[in-house]
Write a structure and sequence with these properties.
CATH class: Mainly Alpha
Number of strands: 4
Radius of gyration: 22 Å
Order of helices and strands: HHHHHHHEEEHHHHEHHH
Helix content: over 70%
Distance between the termini: 28 Å
Number of domains: 1
Strand order of the largest sheet: 1-4
Number of helices: 14
CATH topology: ABC transporter involved in vitamin B12 uptake, BtuC
Oligomer: single chain
Largest sheet: 2 strands, antiparallel
């Protein structure tokens, strides 16, 4: 028995090392492989060689990569807020609707003479307000986050439509439209903003007491209470942060469109955000995850969307493939939890 145990130790150690390496690398290798595959497929013809297909590929062109980063920016911002929530073991299904309502507020305020630029703080503040309502219902009323934010998804979507009288609100002279312009080297300000959000979120989660408490609440809420952590404060923060970033996403969306629409804007954005978070390694049960993983997950979603368009996949199949990606993300989450201390 002892001999068998000793012989099995190196194998067990190798398995642990492989698992640790997999968790450390996360989905980054998958992101690289998907990008390389789309580079080849976007230039592939039946008569051409592999080298010709690679050279003719359009995915890795600088212009296209810039488009991918811009496309990923809004989902990155939403997913950052979603990361805070999911780390506590919660969920926020309302971010797409909050984005639409915040964009509507931003554009409406921008149409008021001499108030134009105030559309930015107004849209963000409205997102924080809606996030605070979600947080209050979860932390004080003790309602399940899924139910609360599912209700908010519908209610806030209706509110966004009411704000715009169920019409698209345009402002061709949007005073903060420059946010969607180029910052440097073909990289847009939207990309810069999204990266700044990731950096600030990383600092909060990695270097602050609040970040430690967020992980603690997600790991074991009862133990967090016994250790003196005010769980309600942590929950209020994460839902307000999610609302804040959804509001920022709404402002960012309005700068790209110079308009806002309560019915269509932000539809299914919550699914992309959740997929990005789970693909990035954050566990649905809370307490495990990194914001850099979320960035990788958001880039995977953007690369999939862009690459599928480049190779001519129809909208219908894009939805199917994205749905399968979400299922795969949950499967990965289960694999990451398998064999861990948490049961």
């Amino acid at each position: 028995m002892t001999t068998t145990t000793i012989a099995e130790q190196p194998l067990t150690q190798r398995k642990r090392a492989l698992r640790s390496s997999f968790q450390a690398l996360g989905m980054f290798p998958i992101l690289i492989l998907i990008g390389l595959a789309f580079q080849f497929m976007s230039g592939y013809t039946e008569t051409g060689s592999f080298a010709e297909a690679w050279t003719a590929g359009r995915f890795l062109a600088m212009q296209n990569l810039s488009i991918v980063m811009q496309q990923a920016s809004i989902n990155t911002v939403l997913a950052a807020g979603m990361t805070f929530v999911i780390l506590t073991g919660g969920i926020d299904l309302s971010v797409g609707s909050i984005l639409a309502a915040s964009a509507m507020i931003a554009v409406i305020i921008s149409l008021v003479p001499e108030w134009g630029i105030m559309g930015v703080p107004a849209g963000i503040a409205f997102g924080v307000l809606l996030g605070a309502i979600n947080g209050g219902l979860v932390s004080f009323a003790k309602l399940p986050p899924f139910i609360v934010t599912l209700g908010s998804l519908t209610a806030v979507r209706g509110l966004a439509r009411v704000l715009g009288d169920d019409k698209t609100v345009f402002n061709p002279d949007l005073p903060f439209a420059g946010m969607s312009g180029d910052a440097f080297l073909g990289i847009s300000w939207l990309t810069v903003i999204a990266f700044a959000v990731i950096v600030v979120s990383w600092i909060v989660l990695r270097f602050t007491t609040l970040g430690v408490r967020i992980y603690a609440v997600g790991g074991n809420e009862a133990a967090a209470k016994l250790s003196g952590i005010k769980v309600w404060q942590v929950l209020m923060f994460v839902y307000c942060a999610s609302g804040f970033l959804a509001g920022l996403g709404g402002v960012m969306s309005s700068t790209r469109l110079l308009a806002a629409n309560g019915l269509q804007l932000g539809q299914s954005y919550e699914l992309d955000a959740i997929a990005a978070v789970i693909l990035g390694g954050t566990s649905f049960v809370g307490g495990v995850g990194t914001i850099w993983g979320t960035l990788i997950g958001a880039l995977i979603i953007a690369v999939l969307s862009n690459g599928l368009i480049l190779i001519g996949v129809s909208d219908v199949w894009q939805f199917i493939i994205k749905g399968l990606v979400i299922i795969g993300a949950v499967a990965l989450d289960r694999y990451r939890l398998k064999g861990s201390a948490r049961t």
